[in-house]
Amino acid sequence: MPVVGGDLVLLPSRDLSVNRKSQQNMLPARTVTLFYAERRPGTYTMMIQAKLASEERAILLENIDAIDTINCSGSRITVGFSDEASAIVARSWPLGTVLLTLADGCKSGLLIFISI
Amino acid sequence: MNSRLLRARAAAPRIVEFLVVRTNLQQVVEELDVSYGQLIRNPDGGSLTSYTTTITSYFTNPSARTMTSSVFVSTITPSLTSMTYTSTLASASSSSGFMVSSSSTASSDLVPTGSSLVTSATGQTASTSTSASADLSPQSLLTSAAVLDTASSGSSFVASSASFTASNPAVSSESSLVESSASLTIPESASSTSSIVESFMSSSALVVASSDSGPEILSASTAAPSSAFSGESSPVVASLTTSDSASIESTLAPSSTDGDVVSMTTWSLDPSAQAVREIRKKLSTT
């Protein structure tokens, strides 16, 4: 746990510089950029660009504007889209695609702890 | 949460359900590129008239044959009317090859000036600059990068510094957001050896904005993280040194010009600053 008064905690956050309407974000990619920031009004940020192994591809769900809801329950992730076309694209994602999300209720495996 | 998609099925036209077979990135990530930065936001009611930042980075990796150091500035919103960006890089090696370049994602009439390819005879320094004076749309990106080839010398030191000034006196600053950062890419060949990579980066920013009462300095802030982390991709454990100082200066001071050992930085702290704090960072991938 972070030490009170002495820690800087960078939380996984949505990258404001990403154009979430871009269809590119719907395509599984070998490289994903994870963005971290302090709670406002903090100024520290960190980005981790993760290059996956050659056979791996990933989708960062927070970068997709067409996603309305993300629910994690047990071994299932249910994603609700605002339009059917986006849902169709999502169904085309290959088996084995790595999904990354910051959604509440989903295990956050990429929280950055900075502690003294 | 990171989950591997096993299969998807339709539960409703707009609903897609995925079955999770794993929830970590072990064995998935091959390379990590870690960047630090600052977000600068103007308070409500002012205009961003000037933003200047300088960022310095320093990287070592005894095993790396090549290393890429990049410094970039991105504007998020609103657009900026002008931006000047310069970058200078230096190496401890006397024989390393340098390649320096600048680029911009701005419109075609804003082709950056000063793009250059430099292979220095002495290998000590190289510089490049980029400037744009017309409209820079949101999410424009100016980049300066250097690739240091250490194959011939075994050197492991590269430092880069960059500064830029951006301005847009006409645009409301409510959502002004400027980010600058430096990054280090650990080559796969180096990360696999678990070699130690040290990096140092400092940045300072001065934001001048106008309000009803006229121009005023809104903030002068610094971020000076220094990190040493292993090249192993998972998990990544890093240590950072930072300070809450309102002004902090640093001097790159390599202790050796012909070996792999490079000393840490000399710090000059504002007398009113809090003591430099040693903080540790852990990136959990489990």
Walkthrough of the structure:
The complex is a heterodimer of chains A (116) and B (286). With 116 residues, chain A is mainly beta. Chain A has one domain (10-115). In chain A, 7% of the residues lie in helices and 39% in strands. Chain A has 1 helix and 8 strands; from the N terminus they run E-E-E-E-E-E-H-E-E. A 4-stranded antiparallel beta sheet of chain A has the order 3-2-1-8, with no helix packed on it. In chain A, a hairpin with a 2-residue loop joins strand 5 and strand 6. Chain A starts with 7 loop residues before the first strand and ends with a strand. The model of chain A is unreliable at 1-8 and 108-116 (pLDDT under 50). Chain B has 286 residues and is mainly β. Chain B is built from 1 helix and 18 strands. Chain B has one helix at residues 188-191; strands at 2-12, 15-20, 29-41, 47-60, 66-77, 82-91, 97-104, 125-132, 141-149, 158-167, 177-185, 196-211, 214-223, 226-230, 236-242, 248-251, 266-269, 277-283. In chain B, the strands form 4 sheets. In chain B, strands 4, 6, 8, 10, 12, 13, 14, 15 and 18 form a 9-stranded antiparallel beta sheet that branches. In chain B, strands 3-11-5-9-7 form a 5-stranded antiparallel beta sheet, with no helix packed on it. In chain B, strand 14 and strand 15 form a beta hairpin. The longest helix of chain B is centred in the middle third of the chain and has 4 residues, at 188-191. Chain B is globular and about 55 Å long. Chain B starts with a strand and ends with a strand. Mean pLDDT of chain B is 43; it is low at 5-10, 41-49, 54-67, 92-96, 106-124, 150-160 and 169-286. Chains A and B meet through strand 3, strand 6, helix 1, strand 7 and strand 8 of A and strand 1, strand 2, strand 3, strand 11 and strand 18 of B. Strand 3 (44-52) of chain A pairs antiparallel with strand 3 (29-41) of chain B, so a sheet runs across the interface.
